[in-house]
Amino acid sequence: MRYFVESYGCTMNYGEGAQLSERMSGMGYEKASSAETADVVILNTCTVVDATEKKMVRRMTELRGMGKEVIVTGCMAEVQPGRISVRLPDSLIIPPRNYSEFSDKVGSKYGCWHPLDNKETGTSAILPIAQGCLGACSYCITRFARGKLLSYPEEELLAEFKKRLKSGAKEILVTAQDTACYGRDIGSSLPELLFKMLEVPGDFRIRVGMMNPDWLAPIVNGMMDVLEDPRVYRFLHIPVQSGSGSVLSAMKRGYTPEEYLSLVGNIRSRCPDVSISTDMIAGFPGETDEDHRKSVDLLRVLNADTVNITRFSPRPGTKAAEMTQVNGRIIKARSTELTDVKNEVELANNKKLVGRTFRVLVTEEGKEGSVIARTDNYRPVGIAEDIPLGTFCDAEITGCGPTYLIGRTLNNRSG
Length: 415
Description:
Blueprint: E1 2-7, H1 11-26, E2 30-31, E3 40-45, H2 50-65, E4 69-74, H3 75-79, H4 81-87, E5 92-93, H5 102-110, E6 124-128, E7 130-131, H6 142-146, E8 150-151, H7 154-166, E9 171-175, H8 190-197, E10 205-208, H9 213-216, H10 220-227, E11 235-237, H11 245-251, H12 257-270, E12 275-282, H13 289-302, E13 306-311, H14 328-351, E14 357-365, E15 371-374, E16 380-383, E17 392-400, E18 405-409
Parallel strand pairs: 1-2, 1-3, 3-4, 4-5, 6-9, 9-10, 11-12, 12-13, 16-18
Antiparallel strand pairs: 7-8, 14-15, 14-17, 15-16, 17-18
Helix pairs in contact: 8-10, 13-14
């Protein structure tokens, strides 16, 4: 019986999708190359915004029309099982909190076969370190799907980390709903976990996933110590969401714009070449023109290397869905302005890097014989050369766009 895992949404979801794939192979199922060629499709869903939810529903209808057996996992399986059952009345619905029962449920419905020799390897591997978070953001449906923080045991994560490296991975993406929360429920912390990972010998890279400011602040000194190891990307994803204090308060974010900028300033003072990524929501309920202007101003002051702009959409069951909504046309206009500003800032930052040389790790295949590599602060570099994935090399930056760098390799490659 052939299976295919189709994941959507965040890095965490893709990491869990890979783990579910391993379980299917371990039960003797054969991995298909696409949903079309599979007997069973694991639809690993996301429902973070309304547009994504609608995309999931359309995909369910498509899979039913194809006559596929479907197992629905991910966030929709937790918060919207009824909507799934309408489209896929005979499907298995397994939310993230029940992944420990995944093999039993699948085996009970479809049976098991002799395990196959699963030798899949990849340059990049995703390592989820926890379920849930400690936040109470008024707009977030994901916290209902994932629940309260549940950190995975250090020994299990270290074993998985070593397994990924042994299988050939050169880049480990450490992820969670909020990685900064890791360990608070088990007497540990994110820096402690990362330092134990760094005790493993080898030339690899670790990318640390999103950290909310209020939970990063207590561990920031430890994280700065971690970033001193060259095997950890000097990259931090710290969402700000708004430049307005009143909007952040309505969002239940737990910090002010001034506190956010102070935190980033302290980080940059200790690690000047750190790459900062952030998120901004356009059109949160009650957001005024003045609030929006503060967000635009903050983007310019922050001078982040990467900014993700999201248009607000109310999610069922959240406090924000009950608030007075901003007109859709206004949200679109504000999102457009924020995007223009972020492109301007990102392009200016990238232009400063043209002519410089960086040690990079080739991590992805690009278009038409090109590859994508990452600098030590996780900046993407497009290289129009045929280079094996997992190769370390020196690259000179020859050009750029707002969201990427362009480079060419010099000598001194290593695998």
